[in-house]
Amino acid sequence: MTVEAPAKINLRLAVGPVRADGYHEVLTVYFAVGIRDRLRASAADDLTVEVVGRQAELVPVDSSNLAVRAARLLAERAGVRAGAHLRIDKRIPVAGGMAGGSADAAAALVACDRLWNLNLGRDALIELGAELGSDVPFAVHGGVALGSGRGERLDPLPTRHVFDWVLVPAEGGLSTPAVYAECDRIREETGWEPVPPRVEEELIGALERGDAAALGRALANDLQPAALRLNPALEATLRTGRELGALGALVSGSGPTCAFLAADGAHAAALCKGFAEAGHTAIHGTGPAPGPRVVDDGRYP
Ligand code: ATP
């Protein structure tokens, strides 16, 4: 059973105060973008994982791998005794703020649900996903959605439009908890008054209308100042994208991947070329992308 699952960008990431459970209250517009990890689940007695592809050496191959944790949770809840061998082909930057681990967890839930003939359905898998991580429910959902709580509560945001993005991964990753901690430090230094997180109407309207120029202007990420302080080189990456004519530029999630909005496919190709000339790797991705998709159900050898 082979499943492909897309990465995400946060078009808006509004970070509120810290809750009693230690998580920050967030309001975010999740957008699934067509850069995909591929996960193959095959029948086995135990639960094992191997990882190949981009930055595979940075991904754990023990029980801490998010895909393994997802398969284990599904087996426990469904009372399954069978195991699975998971083979992950990474294409999503690791620790890049694009929820690659969450994509693999979502792919594992969908693949093992089919491999073990459980047919639990998307809603049940989304609920299980919330136990694995804040971004996992959206990784199962795909498309565009408003995330609230710590990001796990979803309300779909329908849009009939396709947007072109250029993603520029950075050297090294950023740890999500470290970026939140830096955000708290900056807020303490600047005397931030706690306010509930909110998403501006301009962004929702631009998404609905398919207005890429307005969407580009509305992109915003409350974690960006913290990510820039931890990795100051990202400032230059964002500037390069703006100078090349991107409609919008921001750090994706907790970073360090930077996301640039293009007007269309040709504009995205031109941005990629400009980034390559400036010495950066750039990846073109379109979205909203559907959630995890079975690309091979193993029935035909
Ligand atoms: P988010 O945006 O959700 O915070 P991220 O994109 O910044 O996530 P991930 O690529 O999901 O980061 O990886 C975060 C860490 O999780 C990695 O440093 C890695 O050690 C660990 N990890 C566990 N399982 C996986 C997996 N299947 N793929 C990638 N990383 C994984």
TrEMBL record:
Keywords: ATP-binding, Isoprene biosynthesis, Kinase, Nucleotide-binding, Transferase. The keyword DNA-binding does not apply. It holds the Pfam family GHMP_kinases_C. Pathway: Isoprenoid biosynthesis; isopentenyl diphosphate biosynthesis via DXP pathway; isopentenyl diphosphate from 1-deoxy-D-xylulose 5-phosphate: step 3/6. Gene3D superfamilies: 3.30.230.10, GHMP kinase, C-terminal domain (3.30.70.890). It is an enzyme of class 2 (transferase). Belongs to the GHMP kinase family. IspE subfamily. The active site is at K8, D135. It catalyses: 4-CDP-2-C-methyl-D-erythritol + ATP = 4-CDP-2-C-methyl-D-erythritol 2-phosphate + ADP + H(+). ATP binds at P93, V94, A95, G96, G97, M98, A99, G100, G101, S102, A103. GO terms for biological process: isopentenyl diphosphate biosynthetic process, methylerythritol 4-phosphate pathway; terpenoid biosynthetic process. NCBIfam families: ispE, PRK03188.1. Catalyzes the phosphorylation of the position 2 hydroxy group of 4-diphosphocytidyl-2C-methyl-D-erythritol. Residues 204-278 form the GHMP kinase C-terminal domain. It comes from the Bacteria. The keyword Kinase applies. This is 4-diphosphocytidyl-2-C-methyl-D-erythritol kinase. Residues 65-143 form the GHMP kinase N-terminal domain. Its EC number is 2.7.1.148. It comes from Thermopolyspora flexuosa. GO terms for molecular function: 4-(cytidine 5'-diphospho)-2-C-methyl-D-erythritol kinase activity; ATP binding. InterPro entries: GHMP_kinase_C_dom, GHMP_kinase_C_sf, GHMP_kinase_N_dom, IspE, Ribosomal_Su5_D2-typ_SF, Ribsml_uS5_D2-typ_fold_subgr.
